[in-house]
Design goal:
Layout: E1 5-6, H1 16-24, H2 44-61, E2 67-72, H3 75-87, E3 93-98, H4 101-110, E4 115-121, E5 144-148, E6 150-151, E7 156-157, E8 169-172, E9 189-193, E10 204-209, H5 226-231, H6 241-258, H7 261-281, E11 286-287, E12 298-302, H8 306-318, E13 321-322, E14 333-336, H9 343-360
Parallel strand pairs: 1-13, 3-4, 3-5, 5-8, 8-9
Antiparallel strand pairs: 2-10, 6-7, 9-10, 11-12, 12-14
Helix pairs in contact: 1-6, 2-6, 3-4, 7-9
The chain binds pyridoxal-5'-phosphate.
């Protein structure tokens, strides 16, 4: 068996021990005589899985007791609408920072439900950094303040959270969830599609402070109402059963094999450092994100020559380093190095890049 190093931005690699455990349990989950994909979500055995996943997520992320953890569907993109429908309800106002494509989409969606305001943007610099915020533009009576913590397409990360005063901070953490410790109590709401760092696609995680779950806007579909989902323990309808099971296995891997988020963060920082150190001294490859905004999960770089970029992506794929092509909207290259990417994958990629530079410099 030969597995590639998959640098895809998502869906992405899963830890090998997790895939092996899932394979071993495929035909007969813990003596139930069936696979997790086949069992009733109302069964006792499945209840153990979903409750276990939730308890582990709380433990690993240190989620305070006054927060609900919801297992939803529809991807992070559905939350672009669900967040305003549920939270933009008191003053019908919310402030958004535009730091890339996803935060822009979130903002555009919010505009459909109330008075959403873009208070800062780095679009003029092709989103190569986290924008500076002019506090005088932010509204103290906004229902929430929205950011995208890690910008998957541009390879940038908020290294310091904005001070929003009393306004609840809402963050899209799709591409950095579980990558390092995060102080959940600083946020009113966190959301993430699972397919980058948590599980296969199909599961969307929402972590929301209880007091923010209230009456949703008139006309909000039942499936989008946080209070309905919270009251029903994410089981108002059939949840994404298999994805939740895989999420549980990934959390067990982080807790038991890695040793928790502190360790996970150290490991990810070391991995990113390897790649950025190489890029910083390379004569051929140039990193795209501004130094103070660099992401630990998505590393973007270019040669400056589109044909050479394409040649690199093609030769890398033949050598077993797949999905290094940058997002279709920005070009160049992007190495997504989520939790499951082993350090050897990056060491070998850097060796390959050195050799490519030697042959094309
Ligand atoms: C991938 C991604 C999304 C889109 O997620 P879907 O689950 O496909 O809707 C949104 N935000 C960020 C930061 C992402 O990385």
């Amino acid at each position: 068996m030969s597995r590639v190093y998959n640098f895809s931005a998502g869906p992405s690699m899963l830890p090998e021990p997790v895939l092996q455990k899932a394979a071993a349990e495929m035909m007969d989950y813990e003596g139930s005589g069936q696979s997790v994909m086949e069992m009733s979500h109302r069964s006792k055995v499945y209840d153990g899985i979903i409750q276990g996943a939730q308890a582990l997520l709380r433990e690993v992320m240190g989620v305070p007791d006054n927060y609900k953890v919801l297992f939803l569907q529809g991807g992070a993109s559905s939350q672009f609408a669900a967040v305003p429908m549920n939270l933009m309800v008191k003053n019908r106002k919310a402030d958004y920072v535009l730091s890339g494509q996803f935060s822009t989409k979130a903002f555009q969606e919010a505009c459909r439900y109330g008075d959403a305001k873009a208070v800062a943007s780095s679009k003029g610099d092709n989103f190569s950094h986290i924008p500076e915020i002019d506090k005088s533009l932010c509204r103290p009576d906004a229902d929430y303040f929205h950011i995208c913590l890690n910008n998957t397409i541009y390879g940038t990360l908020w290294h310091q959270l904005p001070d929003t005063g009393g306004v609840p901070l809402v963050a899209d953490i799709s591409s950095c969830i579980l990558s390092e410790p995060l102080d959940v109590s600083r946020f009113g709401l966190l959301y993430a599609g699972a397919q980058k760092n948590v599980a296969p696609a199909g599961l969307t995680i929402v972590i929301v402070r209880e007091d923010l779950i209230g009456e949703a806007l008139e006309g909000t579909p039942t499936m989008f109402q946080y209070d309905v989902m919270a009251k029903n323990d994410s089981m108002y309808n059939t949840p994404p059963c298999w994805s939740i099971y895989m999420c549980k296995l990934v959390l067990e891997w982080i807790k038991n094999d890695i040793g928790g988020l502190e360790k996970m963060g150290q490991r990810n920082a070391a991995k990113a450092q390897l790649l950025y150190d190489f890029l910083d001294q390379s004569k051929l490859f140039k990193p795209c994100a501004r130094k103070d905004s660099r992401s630990m999960m998505n590393v973007t770089f270019v040669t400056g020559d589109a044909d050479l970029d394409a040649k690199f992506v093609k030769e890398a794929a033949s050598a077993g380093f797949v999905n290094l092509k940058g997002h279709r909207s920005v070009g160049g290259m992007r190495a997504s190095i989520y939790n499951a990417m082993p350090v050897e994958g990056i060491e070998k990629l850097v060796a390959f890049m050195k050799a490519f530079e030697g042959g094309n410099g």
